[in-house]
Amino acid sequence: MSGFFVYNTPLFFCPDQRKFYYDILSSTIEIMASDPLEILFGNQARVKLLRFFLFNPSTDFTFDEISRRARLVRRTARTEMNALERAGVIKKKQIYQQLEDKDKKVRVHGYSLNKKFPELQALQTFLFETAPINGKTVLKHLRNAGPVDFVCLSGVFVRDFEQRLDLLIAMKKMSDKKIENAIRTLESELGMEIRFAAFSSEDLVYRVGMYDKLTRDVFDYPHQIIVDRIAIKDELPRR
Fold it and tell me: Which neighbouring-strand residues pair with 110?
C-alpha cells in the first residue's frame, strides 16, 4: 500500500487522489527546474521576445520577421507581443517594406522597442547579463552543424560591441546550410544577431599565416578561443 508521509505519519489515498498529488508534485519539480527568467517573466517565449527587441533597439520588424527570427509559433508570438505592447515595452507603427512580388514599397505594420519605456536601461542590462552568452551555449548549437576544429568568441561574447565579428569557426567538412541553421537557432535563443565567419580548417590556417585582415580583426582585439584542434594559437604572435 502506497501513500505520502507527513511527520512520519502515513497518509493513504485512492488511485485518483494519488494521481492528483503526483501531478502537483511533478508540476512543482518542473517549475523549480526551469529557467528562473521564465518564471519571472511568464514563459520562455516572452523572454525570447524581450531579448530580441532589447538587443535590437534601433530596428523595425514586421510580425513575420519577428516570429521567424525568434523561432516562435505565430499564435504564441502574437499573444506575447500583445502583452509586451500593453506593458509599453514595444510599440506598433506603420513602416514601408519592399516585397519580392511588388515594384514599390508597401505600408505594413511594424514593431520596435519603445525607447521611452521608463525602466528600459535597467531591463536591458538585466536581460543581457542573464543571457546565456557563453562558450557552452555556442558549442551546443554548433555541434549540430558537425565536428568543429576551431571556435573563437569575440565581439558581443566578450562585451566588445565595436568588433567586426562575434564568432569565428573552422571545420574540416563544412556545410553552409547546417552552419547557417545552427547560427540562426543560437540567435533565436540569445535574441540578437550574430556576426560570424566560417572557413574550412585548411583555409583558416592559411589566412592566419598570411595575416589576413579579417582574422587580424579578431585576434588583435579581445577574444576567447574555446576550441583549437588545428593549433591556431601557435600561429598567433606572442603578446
Answer: 93
